[in-house]
Amino acid sequence: MTRLFKDERLGYVASRLLTTVLIVFGAMVLLFALTALVPGDPAKSLLGPQASPELAKRFIAEMGLDQPLHVRLWRFFGAVLTGNLGVDVISGKPVVQLVASVLPYTVILTFSAIGLSVLIGVPLGIHAATHRGSASDTILAFVSVAFIAVPSFVIAIFLLLIFAIWLDWLPVLGTSRSGEFLDEARRMILPTLALAAGWIGFIARLVRSSMLEVLGEPYIRTARAYGLSERLITYKYALKNACIPTIAILGLGIGRLLGGAVLVEIVFARPGLGRLVYEAVSERNFPVVQGAVLVVVVLFVVVNLIVDLSYSAIDPRIRRSSGQGAGA
Amino acid sequence: MAEPLVAIRNLKLEAGTARGRAAILRGIDLEIGRGRILGLVGESGSGKSSLAACLIGLTPANTSAISGEIRFDGQNLVGLDPTAFARLRGRRIAMIFQDPMTALNPLFTIGTHLVDVLRHRDPGLSRAAALSEATAMLVKVGIADPEARIAAYPHQLSGGMRQRVMIAMALLMRPDLLLADEPTTALDATVEAQIVELLAALRREVSGSIVFISHHLGLVAQLCDDVAVMYGGTVVETGPVDAVLTDPRHPYTRALIACEIDEDDAPGGRLLSIPGEVPDPVRPMTGCIFAPRCAHAVETCRSEVPELRTSGDGRRAACLRFEELP
Q1: Residue of B107, B195, B83 whose CA lies nearest to A220
Q2: Which end of chain B, C or N, has fewer beta carbons within 10 A?
Q3: Cα(A113)–Cα(A93) distance, integer angstroms
């Protein structure tokens, strides 16, 4: 029994790893296609229309753009696998270096925003579910929907106005130049709040509805029939079941924020992956777009792999069905 | 006779529905003797499960009114404070549910289920002690390899096995009152027979009283000491099983027995059924609840509500005419 169990689990992990690798390869092909198939002459658009034909030709040769497609695809794969994401055509810096310089900001901001949303949204959702129909439930529903509906950059602007300008409690813009921890932490507060607001509302709604569904299940009635306390029923028996849809959404949320916090990054004048991609796209700086998007994709896929594995750890039934699927 | 464990007096339960107030229980009078097994039989919608829900204090959310009296060892359960009721549940009253597939939480092992209820009953119990007590009980309910099963999740067990786990859970409580709500209905016929055998064998384990809800008269005859026949939210006949089932007084009990015999004799054949429909709970009761479907109904049956009257041998029937019937 126990042995079989371990095999089921290993099979599940293996199948999820395989899909993860396939997704990353698929993304690499698409990203390659992006630069290869986009109309327009990259030399002209980057060097400007005044560039001499010799210069353009040398540029094309340097970039390897005169090679056939499959050779270029192969070279791209080889380069990526050795950790080389190409060179920024404007600054001449390696893309890896560019991405590495902004990645910590993005990762910290994303995880603190999602972390805050969970810390606030989950208890609010539980409260709303266990006090269904009460005044606090109604108010929460209203506030949650309002937070979800207002775009995060609008919230960002309001937060800036209130806390940084009128009240002057927190630094306005940018990141800490000295790399000082406390200063940086203070500068993180407003962007984190701006990104988290919508997610708090979203998670609160989601936890509320999954809790309500779970609390109506027969096994909860069993727990009640045996006199278990409401606290044990809510926080142990119901919450664990209600967690699964929430965790699935968290995976998507983290992925979304990793590459999509661009407007908030711009409002607060912070560096970040989203902003890097946005600026590279507007400059037709394809190596940077390719490299940065690939990093976003890999992070997204890895986060979702962790999410999948974590809910298979929570729900034993997932291991089983997927394990069978992989074995068949 | 000693004072019964449970004495139910004029218990009424109303629920708000889309069509208006529905009378789910229309004045139940019933006693559950100490150490006795009471079979509760009736068609679906007769109020059997609602009566059990009242006994364990878990009436559905749409309940709008509950009145009358349920004396449990002298204490009235109707209107009992929820925390006081929660203390009774899992200590003095326990319940086995119809569908073992959904009655166990899929994300927790069998061990967690059993340990949690044991430690609710006895907060001083250590986890290890609770586990060993639970393991011993699994053996008693006929589960082979209990150490492996206790670490298993519900989905890894068969339906019959899960119902055994539910029975183990109930027995671990050593309840004074055990409610078994159609514990075999959701199981395959062969598994059903095994569970019935198990319940019969475990009778000695239970010192308290058992309410066995079923729509299957054969099972009730096999397991129970007493029987109460329910129809349309009322008890139409009650008494010792042998007496009631061999010589039923109420026309509904007779019809029910006729259906059952027919079902046993002619498998797959045309089933004998009682003409008419189950009474609509939204409509008020103006006469005998069974009168519209009763072959022996006369004019007074439609205007006068019959009360449970003694019909000899400790039996009672709610029929105005049982003396006159053949």
Answers
A1: B107
A2: C
A3: 30
So what's the pLDDT on residue B268? Answer: 47
B95 Cα to chain A: minimum distance (Å): 6
3-state secondary structure of B272: coil
Express each pLDDT in B251-291 by its tens digit: 899 888 888 765 555 444 444 577 777 788 888 888 888 88
Say if CB A91 and CB A291 are below 8 A apart.
no
What average pLDDT does range B101-105 have in this prediction?
A: 91
* Separation in Å, CA A118 to CA A84, A106, A153, B88: 36, 18, 20, 36
Q: Looking at residue A46, what is its pLDDT?
A: 64
Yes or no, beta carbons of A217 and B102 under 8 Å apart: yes
Query: In which residue are the tokens 């054949």 written?
Result: B269
Confidence of residue A325 (pLDDT cuts 50, 70, 90): very low
List CB contacts (< 8 A) between A1 and chain B.
Answer: 148, 152, 156
The per-residue pLDDT for A73 is 81
Tens of pLDDT along A122-136? Answer: 999 999 999 988 899
- Interchain proximity A228–B155, CB inside 8 Å: no
C-alpha A297/C-alpha A294 separation (Å) is 5
Closest by Cβ to A241, choosing from B107, B117, B156:
B107
Distance from CA of A225 to the nearest CA of B (A): 6
Q: Is the pLDDT of residue B135 over 90?
A: yes
Nearest CA-CA distance, residue A316 and chain B, Å: 7
Q: Yes or no: say if A277 and A262 are a contact pair by the CB < 8 Å rule.
A: yes
Sheet strands side by side (includes B226-231): B93-96, B177-181, B209-214, B37-41, B226-231, B234-240, B315-317, B309-312
Residue-by-residue DSSP string for B203-272: GGG--SEEEEEES-HHHHHHH-SEEEEEETTEEEEEEEHHHHHHS--SHHHHHHHHHHHHHHHSTTSPPP
CB B293 within 8 A of CB B274: yes
B99/A232 Cβ within 8 A: no
Question: Residue A78: what are its φ and ψ, rounded to 5°?
Answer: -60, -45
Q: Is some CB atom of chain A closer than 8 A to the CB atom of B86? A: yes
Across chain A, mean pLDDT equals 81
**What is the average per-residue pLDDT within A265-285?**
84
- CA of B193, closest CA in chain A: separation in Å? 24
Residue B61: exposed, middle, or buried by beta-carbon count in 10 A (0-12, 13-18, 19+)?
Answer: exposed
For residue B56 the two structure tokens come to 């364990």
Residue entry with tokens 């937070």: A147
Name the strand (E) or helix (H) holding B63. Answer: strand B63-72
Cβ(B191)–Cβ(B160) below 8 Å: yes
Least confident of A7-21, A238-252, B233-247: A7-21
- Average pLDDT on B37-52 reads 90
What's the whole-number average pLDDT of chain B?
87
Interface of B with A in 145-184 (CB under 8 A): 148, 151-153, 155-156, 166, 169, 173
Q: Which CATH architecture has domain A103-316?
A: Orthogonal Bundle (1.10)
> In the prediction, which pLDDT does A261 show?
79
pLDDT of residue A2: 45
Residue B98: both structure tokens together: 């119809």
The domains found in chain B, sorted by start residue, are 6-92+175-245 (3.40.50.300)
Query: How far is Cα A257 from Cα A112, in angstroms, rounded to an integer?
Result: 11
